[in-house]
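Morning!

This is the sequence you dropped in the shared folder:
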Amino acid sequence: MINKRLLVKNLLAHNDENSFYDKKRFISIGQKEGKAKFLKHVCALANSNPKNNSFIVIGVEDEDNKIVGVDFFDDSKIQNLVNAYLDNPPLISYYYRIIYVFIIVFN
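The structure's back. C-alpha cells below.
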C-alpha cells in the first residue's frame, strides 16, 4: 500500500518532469484537443518507462510546484478514454484524489 501523502511529497520534490512523472495544472478531456494532449502524455510516459509505474499529477503548477487543485474530476472517464483511443493501452492501476491533487498512476 502506498502512503499517499508521501507519494505526493516525493513526486513534487522532482521539479523537472521526467520519464516516470508528469505534472499538469489541469487537463481538459472534455474537448478534442485536450483529449489528444492527455493521450500524448500517457503514451510518452508509458513508452519511456514500460516496466514501472508512471505518474501524472494534475492540479500542480509547472514552474513552482504550487498546488492549485482541481475542481472536479470524473476519474471513471480516464481508463475509458485511454481504452477508446490507444492500441494496447496501459492499465491504469489506481488513481485517487488527495489534497485537491489528482494523481493518475498507470503501468
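Headline: The beta strands are 21-24, 54-58, 92-98, 101-106.

More detail when I'm at my desk.
O.
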